[in-house]
């Protein structure tokens, strides 16, 4: 069994250590390697990684899409009408003037590709394309989120966070930039947004990440809210997603 380069280098160094007079040529002949390899082993502690050859493209690349079309058609065709390898080879030659691939090359591609297309077809039938309409009412709902942003501050690129409160119906948004996604920034962002909008959403605010308001994460989706956050939201009469409250005089001033 051939030695790994690490073991080969180890043996070359050991032989030189045992007999300092042994030449690079002798070591090269002993281990059937080039003298450059011997020199590298004596000079470098770690062998250089060998360059991996670039993967060669398949001869079928120009007609892979055509073969896939035939295989897609076979998924719905009666068994006796499905393409054989020979039939695919003939169609490629006659219809697309392609005769560079051998029978075995086409066979191997079809053997690999057919189950992939079958799986895609089953997945497509399971998840039919569709759309679930969402109806939003003016001033009723909003979304809040933090996002990482980079800013140039005093000539230095600094990572900050962007607080965003966006009204779901109109898309009107309020943005505030903070150094971190702290609870102080979370609460201050809400206050700034409510002041800019002139009120608060009458129904609820959705949160992609409520971590700044949570003191403990429990099992599943349960969370223990921090005391500070409970005081804040009870004052402004808004609640996390999924909960509804009756409109109050303060909430009636929410803007779309």
Describe the structure.
This protein is α+β, with helices and mostly antiparallel strands. It folds into three domains: 5-43, no CATH class; 61-125; 141-253, Nucleotidyltransferase, domain 5 (2-Layer Sandwich), CATH 3.30.420. It has helices at 5-18, 24-31, 35-43, 64-76, 85-96, 103-126, 183-197, 227-236; strands at residues 141-153, 156-167, 173-178, 204-207, 214-217, 223-225. The protein has a four-stranded mixed β-sheet with strand order 3-2-1-4. A two-stranded antiparallel sheet has the order 5-6. It is flat. The protein starts with a helix and ends in a 20-residue tail after the last helix. Residues 238-256 have low confidence and may be disordered.
Tags for this model:
alpha+beta; Nucleotidyltransferase, domain 5; 3 domains; 4-stranded mixed sheet; two-stranded antiparallel ribbon; flat; disordered C terminus
Dominant shape = flat
The overall pLDDT average reads 80
Please name the CATH topology of the largest domain.
Nucleotidyltransferase, domain 5
Q: What is the assigned CATH homologous superfamily of the largest domain?
A: Ribonuclease H-like superfamily/Ribonuclease H
How would the blueprint of this fold be written?
Layout: H1 5-18, H2 24-31, H3 35-43, H4 64-76, H5 85-96, H6 103-126, E1 141-153, E2 156-167, E3 173-178, H7 183-197, E4 204-207, E5 214-217, E6 223-225, H8 227-236
Parallel strand pairs: 1-4
Antiparallel strand pairs: 1-2, 2-3, 5-6
Helix pairs in contact: 1-3, 2-3, 4-6, 5-6
């Amino acid at each position: 069994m051939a030695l790994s380069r690490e073991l080969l280098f180890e043996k070359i160094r050991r032989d030189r250590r045992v007999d300092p007079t042994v030449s690079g040529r002798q070591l090269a002949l002993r281990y059937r390697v080039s003298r450059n390899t011997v020199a590298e082993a004596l000079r470098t502690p770690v062998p250089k990684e060998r360059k991996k050859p670039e993967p060669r493209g398949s001869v079928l690349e120009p007609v892979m899409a055509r073969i896939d079309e035939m295989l897609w058609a076979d998924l719905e065709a009666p068994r006796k009408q499905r393409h054989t390898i020979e039939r695919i080879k003939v169609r490629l030659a006659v219809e697309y003037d392609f005769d560079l691939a051998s029978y075995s090359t086409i066979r191997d591609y079809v053997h690999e590709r057919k189950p992939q297309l079958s799986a895609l077809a089953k997945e497509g039938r399971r998840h039919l394309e569709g759309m679930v309409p969402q109806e939003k009412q003016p001033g009723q709902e909003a979304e809040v989120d933090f996002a990482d942003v980079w800013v140039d501050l005093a000539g230095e690129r600094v990572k900050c966070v962007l607080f965003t409160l966006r009204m779901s119906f109109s898309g009107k948004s309020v943005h505030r930039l903070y150094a971190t996604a702290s609870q102080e920034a979370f609460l201050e962002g809400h206050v700034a947004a409510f002041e800019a909008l002139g009120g608060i959403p009458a129904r609820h605010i959705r949160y992609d990440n409520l971590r700044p308001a949570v003191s403990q994460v429990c099992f599943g989706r349960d969370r223990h809210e921090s005391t500070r956050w409970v005081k804040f939201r009870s004052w402004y009469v808004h609640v996390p997603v999924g909960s509804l409250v009756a409109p109050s005089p303060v909430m009636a001033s929410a803007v779309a």
